[in-house]
Design brief:
This protein has 943 residues and is of the alpha/beta class. It has 30 helices and 35 strands. The C terminus is likely disordered.
Length: 943
């Protein structure tokens, strides 16, 4: 068919449709791409009445009379264009209504984006084929790559799979995956589904499987995770977790959950929405879930990027765990935001061959990397010189040293040794951060040598003052400056009374800024300890000097001995350097001594020495070192085999756990074979499983009872409707039967605001979430409500007969001509004084939320100038969801809100009335706005 419209005229017509959609759906229109293939109903949300208004506007703008039947049957914008072609000549182009044909608003650039998904969407739209990341086995072998387009596409397929498993916005989904392509795909899949990722670390050794899973169960229970995504090999173990965690419904792999069936995805555009629950490593106690919003994460990423000068030409090589904030946010999400290339390897690969990290930085010419202090120490002690021949680290601009106390000695030794391999001394960057501030809080200026503060040990430990040590001081306390507060963030030092201290005065470190968490998930007690008004308590002690923050230790770890503060990390570092001591295997902690009113100093020291003489020598040397470093002798030195000292997932010493181990008398790791660990876990899951079975039996029994009651009441209702002579009597009988059925089912029913329903003509609109909605309204609404039903029900033999005897009106939802006729019929009913009752969503889904509204109810109200009363039904979706016939016990409430009068009768007044009513319903329904859903096939990612 020849096109009777020129390109400019076609664009004018599409622009007309675009402007109409913007008026019809002002909130979601910026996410809808108008193309000739756009479907009028599904993609553009234009119902039958809105279609009539659109036709009128096209006819006025183009001076045409369009064929009504063809317009009514049009499915796409292209079909409308064909109707225009058949409607006669387009006329003089100069006479056409000139419309602005500006492009749709683009997806915001990363610097302007308010969510992580918006950042990925922008990259996927602008450079889908650009390499985003490479997963390495070592410095030479790649295990997989992802472009921005591949990440977005596969993440959406995971999101579809989560929606199929009934995941709703705000649900928590746990990730227990190693460093792999699957982790990145699953993380963003969870975000695209509107859910919240909860990263967990997978077990690294089978000998620790039982302790590991028990610890993860605590996290799963606190998070209330609905789904656990794990590696296929872990699914059997994952089922044990499911038995122990009551809220966990599914344990799946990424391959299991990826779906090719596309669906509408929630549009997450609220910067305050939770983007991550980062469970702290538990170095000072039980793990706590730090709640971080999209705004928190993006503010932190941008602040760090500003300080280090990050850009798209940078290359980051990382071995950091993805379940830890430094690897997840600092390395990966930072690279995602700035389009820097990321090369990431498993932490296990680094621990086995630490030189693989250095050679990866060499091979890929890394500009950035990061590691906790022990990673640098591992490079110093585990790599031979012959394994470094040809190494060149000269491309590095910054290597962050954080996540645990930074050792001055480690900095010096690493810088000195690797200077010969091109490592720039000013690339070493001690930083300070914590999960409660997303990840980073203080960074040094780029390319600055780390400042080392030599202070008087006695002045600090006795008086809390960081007085510079004299040059001749034989044992100064050396601390490294960890940078200055990130842009937009503040740090202050306070005393025990909360008063701010000056420079070089040690105290509690507090911070505030846009990266700060709102608190801990489902842990109000710990949140109260954290939040101090605008400020957050870090749990660390330190002091400020020359703008830099110097960390002296964790408050809970500092030992108070005879009024002197002892700092465990300094003692641990000195003892670990002894021959025979296990590197990273020393824990120093204090134990209360009631007899003296002070703390006993205990050193837990790992060693492989078995000879009694060598062990006695090691204890004696450790005693001397502690006395020399701390200025006081230890009370007890306990030698233990390797792997005794508890550590966090990031390698930090868990001193509180070591103290508990010491006090329990169980020193040394408990080695159990795998089958015994699994058996113990299975027994541990028996209790939760029995409770789950009991709950299912109870639920099944209730469902059987519920269905029996419903069946009997339906039969009684049908008989009453068929036998009773008047419509009024039939409705009265239905109300009695319905209320009796709900009472017999044990369903608490609450009605509010029914006195607001007028006796004369009015329109009631209710949210629609279940088949039970009509049943509940029939049991509660007064008089003879005209509950509007879809015309398809009129064709059913029994349902159609019953509804007609109740004087229920039927409407056509899609046919334009039929819709006009139905509108006239409903208007006549309202003029007769009947109360019209609409479900303006038209249908309902399994997913909680308020869908878009059809215009019919509001057009009738506007034309008759009668009030619209928003109604809220709660509890029916829980009782009986879509696509299921297994009812659950739930309380039900029906509330009627204040009436809203139309402001006119024109189309704009109808739209205003609809939007005003919908806002009221959203404010009371307690569910998300599903009209903000973005259909993937209609989403615009164009610039």
């Amino acid at each position: 068919m020849d096109d009777a419209l020129g390109p400019s005229q076609r664009e004018h017509l599409i622009s007309l449709v675009r402007e109409f959609v913007r008026e019809l759906h002002p909130q979601r229109s910026r996410f809808i791409q108008i193309t000739p293939s756009s479907r009028i109903e599904r993609d553009l949300g234009i119902d039958s009445l809105a279609r009539i208004e659109l036709v009128l506007r096209i006819e006025r703008a183009l001076h045409l009379h369009l064929p009504a039947q063809a317009v009514g049957e049009a499915e796409t914008v292209e079909d409308v264009i064909r109707c225009v072609q058949r409607g006669g000549p387009a006329g003089d182009v100069a006479a056409l209504k000139v419309l602005t044909t500006t492009a749709l608003p683009s997806v915001p650039a990363p610097d302007e984006a308010v969510t992580l998904t918006a950042v990925l969407d922008w990259h996927a739209a602008r450079h889908a084929d650009r390499l985003h990341l490479t997963v390495l086995q070592d410095e030479t072998v790649s295990l997989g790559t992802l472009t921005y387009g591949e990440l977005a596409a596969r993440a959406r397929s995971v999101a579809y799979g989560l929606l199929e498993r009934d995941i709703s916005p705000g649900d928590r989904v746990a990730l227990m995956l190693p460093t792999s392509v699957d982790f990145f795909v699953a993380f963003f899949g969870i975000l695209y589904a509107g859910a919240i990722p909860v990263p967990l670390y997978p077990p690294m050794r089978l000998s620790q499987l039982e302790d590991h899973l028990r610890r993860q169960t605590t996290i799963l229970q606190n998070a209330g995770a609905r789904v656990l995504i794990a590696v296929p090999e872990a699914l059997r173990v994952g089922n044990l977790l499911r038995a122990m965690a009551g809220d966990l419904d599914h344990v799946v792999s990424v391959a299991d959950i990826e779906s090719t069936v596309s669906a509408a995805l929630p549009h997450v555009d609220d910067p305050a929405a939770v983007a991550l629950i980062q469970y702290t490593s538990g170095s000072t106690g039980d793990p706590k879930g730090v709640v971080l919003s999209h705004a928190n994460l993006l503010a932190n990423i941008r602040a760090m990027g500003t300080v280090i000068g990050a850009n798209s030409s940078d290359i980051f090589v990382s071995w950091l765990p993805l379940y830890h904030d430094m690897g997840l946010i600092g390395a990966w999400l930072g690279c995602l935001h700035y389009a820097a290339r990321l090369y990431v390897m498993s932490p296990l690969s680094f621990l086995i061959r630490p030189q693989s990290w250095l050679w990866a930085m060499h091979r890929f010419r890394a500009t950035f990397s990061a590691s906790p202090n022990f990673g640098f120490e591992l490079c110093l002690t585990k790599i031979a010189d012959q394994e470094l021949v040809g190494l060149d680290l000269g491309s590095l601009r910054m290597v962050a040293n954080g996540a645990e106390p930074v050792s001055v000695q480690t900095l010096r030794k690493f810088t000195e040794r690797f200077a010969k391999y091109g490592f720039p001394a000013n690339a070493m960057a001690p930083v300070y951060g914590l999960a409660e501030c997303s990840v980073g809080l203080a960074f040094p200026p780029a390319r600055r040598l780390p400042p080392v503060d030599r202070i008087d040990r006695d002045q600090l430990s006795l008086h809390g003052v960081a007085v510079p040590a004299k040059p001749e001081d034989p044992r100064p306390f050396e601390l490294v400056g960890c940078g200055q507060p990130l842009p937009g963030h503040e740090i202050r030092i306070v005393d025990q009374a909360g008063r701010e201290l000056g420079d070089r005065r040690e105290g509690r470190i507090e911070f505030r800024g846009p990266s700060a968490t709102s608190g801990y998930f489902h842990n109000e007690a710990k949140t109260r300890e954290l939040v101090r008004g605008d400020w957050r308590d870090t749990g660390d002690r330190g002091y400020m000097a020359d703008g830099d923050i110097f960390i002296t230790g964790r408050i809970k770890d500092i030992i108070i001995r005879a009024g002197r503060h002892l700092y465990p990390q300094e003692i641990e570092e000195a003892v670990a350097a002894l021959p025979g001591a296990h590197k990273g295997g020393v824990a120093v902690f204090g134990v209360a001594d009631r007899a003296t009113g002070t703390e006993r100093v205990v050193v837990l020291l790992e060693t492989r020495e078995s000879d009694p003489g060598m062990r006695a020598t090691l204890q004696a040397r450790a005693h001397e070192i502690v006395t020399d470093v701390a200025g006081t002798p230890p009370d007890e030195i306990v030698l233990a085999p390797p792997r005794t000292v508890p550590k966090t997932s990031s390698g930090k010493i868990r001193r509180s756990a070591a103290k508990e181990l010491y006090q329990s008398g169980h020193i040394g790791p408990i080695q159990r074979v795998l089958w015994w660990q699994l058996l113990r876990l299975a027994f541990a899951g028996i209790g939760p499983q029995l409770r789950r079975v009991a709950r299912r039996i109870s639920e099944t029994s209730y469902a059987a009872w519920w269905c029996s009651v419903l069946g009997c009441s339906a039969l009684a209702g049908c008989l009453a409707v068929l036998v009773l002579p008047s419509v009024s009597a039939r409705w009265s009988a239905l109300r009695c039967i319905g209320r009796g059925a709900l009472r017999t089912m044990g369903v608490p029913l609450t009605t509010l605001g029914f006195e607001k329903i007028p006796r004369h003509a009015a329109v009631l609109v209710f949210n629609h979430s279940s088949y039970m909605d009509a049943f509940v309204l029939a049991a509660t609404l007064p008089s003879e409500p005209a509950i509007v039903a879809k015309r398809e029900l009129a064709q059913q033999v029994i349902a159609g007969l019953m509804l007609r005897r109740l004087a229920i009106p039927f409407v056509e939802r899609y046919d334009v001509a039929g819709s006009l006729t139905d509108t006239a019929t409903l208007t006549a009913l309202a003029q007769q004084g009947r109360i019209l009752v609409f479900f303006p969503e038209g249908t309902f889904t399994r997913r909680a939320g308020l869908s878009g509204f059809f215009l019919g109810a509001f057009k009738i109200a506007a034309e008759l100038n009668v009030p619209v009363l928003p109604g809220i039904i709660k509890g029916t979706r829980t009782m009986l969801r879509s696509d299921q016939w297994f009812p659950r016990h739930s309380a039900i409430s029906v509330a009627i809100c204040d009436p809203i009068m139309p402001s006119g009768s024109d189309f704009q007044a109808v739209i205003r009335l609809r939007d005003q009513v919908r806002r009221v319903m959203l404010a009371h329904v307690g569910e998300p706005d599903l009209d903000e859903l973005v259909k993937p096939e209609a989403t615009s990612l164009a610039s």
